[in-house]
Amino acid sequence: MSLAAGDRIGPFQILSAIGAGGMGEVYKATDSRLNRTVAIKILPSADRDLATRFDQEAKAIAKLAHPNICTLHDVGVDGSVPYLVMEYLEGETLASRIARGALPAAEAVGIAVQIAEALAVAHHSGITHRDLKPANIMLTKSGAKLLDFGLAKLRETHPIAGLPAGSTGIATQAAPFTTAGTILGTLHYMAPEQVEGRDADHRADLWALGCIVYEMLAGRRPFDAANPAGVIAAVLTASPAPLTHAALDRIDRTCLEKNPDDRWQDARDLARELRWAVDAPAAGAASAGARPSRVAWIAAGAAFSLLVVALAALAFRPVAQTASTVRFAVAPPPETELYDFADPVRISPDGRRLLFTTRDRDGRSQLWVQALDSMTPQRLAGTEGANYPFWSADGRSVAFFTLNALKRIPAAGGSAQTVCETATGISGTWNRNGVIVFSSGLANSTLFKVPADGGTPVQLTTLDATRQETMHVWPQFLPDGDHFFYLARSARPENSGLVVGSLSAPAKVPLLALDSNAFVADGHLFFVRQGALWAQRLDSERFRLVDDPVAVADGIWTFTGHGGGAFSVSEGGSVAYRPIVPQMTELVWLDRNGRRLGTIEEPGEYMHVSLSPDDARVAFERGISKKGAAGIWLYDMRRRVTERFTLDDNWSWSPVWSADGTRIAFAATADNAPGIYERGTAGGGTPRLLYTESMMMQPTDWSRDGQWIIGSSIRPGEGGDLWGLRLPGDGKPVSILQSPFNETEGRLSPNGRWLAYTSDESGRNDVYVRSFPGGDVKRRISQGGGRQASWRRDGKELLFRTDDGDMMAVPVRTEGAFDASAPQALFRARIQKSFLGRYDYAVVADAQRFLVNVRLGSEAPPPANVILNWKASGGATPDKR
What DSSP string runs through 748-770? Predict the structure, then answer.
């Protein structure tokens, strides 16, 4: 099956062919749902053995997640043709690069370390690649990428704690002597045990990597001949000529030992040796002195080797003085993960340290500071519950937000101090004169300024109604400490853009039409557009951009809700960012034992699941509108048809059904009037505004008698609270529960007498029940954490989920005095972890089946990426002075 430009496979339109090999054909395509470019690999042959390997490839790459492994987006079948959807990579293969000549030692080692780290993750996940070769390594702006797991060998294993296990992707190209049969692989890079047809384990990949390292440094293959028989003979009997770099020659010869037991036994050990060797003399014997110890917490790093070398060479001189760009990844400490994707990693003004937020298994957040010349991150005690941190101008202090305050703490550790009371914040900037400008990021939010030593916030900007502005967010001071720019978002996307403001003057100057935050550093404005990070020279005196923008990195995560690109830049031009990893999920039917019964729809980026009262329709969020906003969709299980419920490009979320199933209430940001809306489910008609106010709010339930919509909100200085909206009424919410803690996810029992909800008053999220509306009776239901409570339709059982993915059931009595038994575990699933207030599952009336939003791919967010000396990659426009 050959495809041409314009052909379609599933929801993907073919743009052009990329390549072909024994294991499939690869095409460049457009994803019509997400409006992004992808690579599609199809299996054109009906050969049963090839089909088995194609399926094996999908299973192999679905277990992996690493910055140096091409990402898998999706899998599917079009008719009888299976296909894989992968990250589309721009760059060149290592084979093409080698064809131009040998690589400098530092460049070759950098690539080798990245591939070794990727192999380490694969090997510890039970996967041997078996076809590692230069044609299967792509060199991109974000580093080397390992491709094509078509010949991968899987074994059952338990991944080592701390190593990511998620989805990755492939691309394949034809290469000399690639065959499918008893001997699997490409002869020039096959280990002796492979060419002899013996069983090969992960050490065969280390042989292949040794062949690649040799070829990069020498400009020729270590084992070559005029025909396949000669190549096999060389692999089994010959030894290649020595490399001129003695330390690298010793390491590479260990890779190329004929006996697997004499080779390096672990890819991570090989990476460590390569890191050491790059600093050794290019000639003479290798030193036997001390070597760097294993990097414990940067296990997922793509090239930490070059970081150590670069920092030694820099001695913390300006990054621009180095000879090459250095890219590497930074993973969080063990037993933690980086916080939500929208929470960026912040690099210090001098480019020496990273500031980031983690969360533990119980969802508790914490700040850390990591010096780039150290292997150990430092926890900032007293920052529990922190997020969205930012540096002071001198780098000595850190500011951060909690649910009801803006705080500061010394970067070296110490006591945290409250700067001011505020609602949950997402962005701030701290100038050299001790002034902080910040935004809550809530609907209708503007910028405020406050002394860093503490005080009362003063409003600094106002929304422009003529431009339908919905929020001012992401301020960033310019070097003069007076001017700053910020993102002005609008209900009309064409009006969103960067604006320059001032502490000393009310005038504002439009700078750039954009829907992203930005940084000024190294004489450039850095911003995100279409998922890529760009740099453009800035004339900071006249506030105008000059020259053309140049690409710095691909795949920057951007949160569509507030336009925040997850990146930061230091004064010297070092960059830290969170890479894009689509949170693909599927909506799966499970029984009470967790057995899979089927799915609805194809995999996608889903949030929140809500069943109609008759269990015949499903409302869910899916973020695939043309302009990136999350929308609400309806799936009819009888007709098996999906239709869009919200028909505009506004951000809409949290659908809840009326008791008769004829209406849905939901939250939305529409025409500068964020609030709660309702709309009929039969189609037609415009949404009706029920309530609006300047706060983040969402409905979570609609009572059976139709008189109450239950919801939660975040108000400035108050955190999360529960409220009710009477119907019909005056559009003013009634407070149900306000406390110093955060309450959300309220749901009424079928008889309307009891309210189940989530609260963090115990120090973690737990499920509680209280009488409604009075609240004079209160019971804690969960014993070890829980959220997202749902009632069985007869009110005799309460269901909830834990953060570990356990679905729990609690027998309850709601007639007369309330009573509850101990929670019982039903099953465990890879349930998607959504924001508070979103439901990742729905349950049918008799609680015998569950529709669960199940994660595909990685369990945790990927590590952060760091770039030192971005200009050296050749992309930046030279300064014109």
Answer: E-TTSSEEEEEE-TTSS-EEEEE
Report the domain count for the chain: 3
Q: What is the largest CA-CA distance in the chain?
A: 88
Domain that holds residue 55: 8-277
Q: Give the span between the Cα atoms of 762 and 296, in whole angstroms.
A: 33
Residue 590, pLDDT score:
96
Whether 155 and 67 map to the same domain: the answer is yes
Same domain, 694 and 805: yes
State both tokens at 542: 């006249």
In a domain, 477, yes or no: yes
Q: Rounded distance, CA 559 to CA 414, Å?
A: 32
- Among 527, 544, 577, residue at a domain's last position: 577
Query: What is the CATH number for 353?
Result: 2.120.10.30
**Would you say residue 881 lies in a domain?**
no
Q: How far apart are CA 555 and CA 579, in angstroms?
A: 5
Under a CB-based contact definition with an 8 Å cutoff, are residues 565 and 574 in contact?
no
Whether the per-residue pLDDT at 552 is higher than 80: the answer is yes
Looking at the fold, whether 502 and 622 belong to one and the same domain comes out as no
User: How does strand 337-338 pair with strand 185-186?
Assistant: unpaired
- Residue 648, classified by CB atoms within 10 Å of its CB into exposed (0-12), middle (13-18) or buried (19+), is middle
Q: Of the segments 86-100, 551-565, 661-675, which one has the largest average pLDDT value? A: 86-100
Q: What is the pLDDT of residues 583-634, one digit of tens each?
A: 678 999 999 999 999 999 888 888 899 999 999 999 999 864 434 456 899 9
- Pick from 512, 620, 628, 514: which is nearest to 561 by CA? 628
Record the tokens describing residue 333, joined without a space: 């400490």
Residue 30 sits in a domain whose CATH number is: 1.10.510.10
Residue 859 pLDDT class (50, 70, 90 cuts): low
Q: Let me know whether 104 and 16 are in one domain.
A: yes
User: Whole-model pTM above 0.70?
Assistant: no
* Catalytic hit among 74, 131, 148, 803: 131
Q: Cβ distance 661 to 617 under 8 Å? A: yes
- Reported as half-sphere exposure (CB side, CA atoms, 13 A), residue 824 has a value of 11
Residue 519 lies in a domain: yes
Dist CA 224 CA 230 (whole Å)? 7
For residue 876, pLDDT over 70 is answered with no
For 241, what's the count of Cα atoms within 13 Å in the CB-facing half-sphere?
A: 8
Active site residue 131: yes
How does strand 326-330 pair with strand 864-868? Answer: antiparallel
Residues 614, 673, single domain; the answer is yes
**Together in a domain, 16 and 91:** yes
- pLDDT level of residue 156 (50, 70, 90 thresholds): very low
Q: What is the pLDDT of residue 49?
A: 54
Query: 26 in a domain, yes or no?
Result: yes
Tell the residue number behind the tokens 């349950």, with chain if given.
843
Q: Report DSSP letters for 259-293, one per residue.
A: SGGGS-S-HHHHHHHHHHHTTS-SSSPPP-S--PP
- Phi, psi (deg, nearest 5) at residue 90: -105, 130
Whole-number mean pLDDT of the chain? 81
In angstroms, how far is CA 278 from the centroid of its own chain?
A: 32
**How is 214-274 classified by DSSP, letter by letter?**
HHHHHSS-SS--SSHHHHHHHHHH--PPPPSSHHHHHHHHHHT-SSGGGS-S-HHHHHHHH
Segment (H or E) for 123 = helix 105-124
Residue 229: partners with Cβ closer than 8 Å, 6 or more residues away: none
Domain check: are 590 and 561 in the same one? no
Residues 6+ apart with CB under 8 A from 766: 758, 759, 760, 780, 781, 782, 785, 786, 787
Question: Domain boundary residue among 542, 577, 612?
Answer: 577
User: Are residues 650 and 527 part of one domain?
Assistant: no
Segment 423-451 shows an average pLDDT of 89
Q: Which pLDDT does position 716 carry in this prediction? A: 45
